Fold this protein.
Amino acid sequence: MIDVEHKKFLEFPSEFLFDVMSDVESYSKFIPGCNSSKIISGSDDKFIAKLSLQYLLMSGEFISEVYCSRKNLTIISKGIEGPFHSLINKWQFKKDGNGSIVMLNISIDLENQIFEKILKRNIDKILSQIILSFEERIDLIY
């Protein structure tokens, strides 16, 4: 089981960050290792999304139920199908002065324990790359 929290201050409004990070269909355009990203069904605040990811020798498709609350500035994704026993991601955006604190919490229990050990050793690097990818995307469209 892997449980991690990542926090970062970004000089952008929380609502804008929420919009960029809830745009799941765009993930494959800018997140490293995300080969495809699409919404299968649902609405803006609750939908089913499918991602195809690859990292080193690990690859797979994940289907998640995603809840987006603009009111609370949170995005919660619960894995419902994929190479895991459980998967929960939670993004929170809190206003802070002239920017926002972005918090990402991930809890994942992979079926393949070897892949989980590899992921556990590299999770901080992977999360930093993902956050950097979002920052670059935000700079591009803001």
User: Anything to note?
Assistant: The chain has a mean pLDDT of 91.
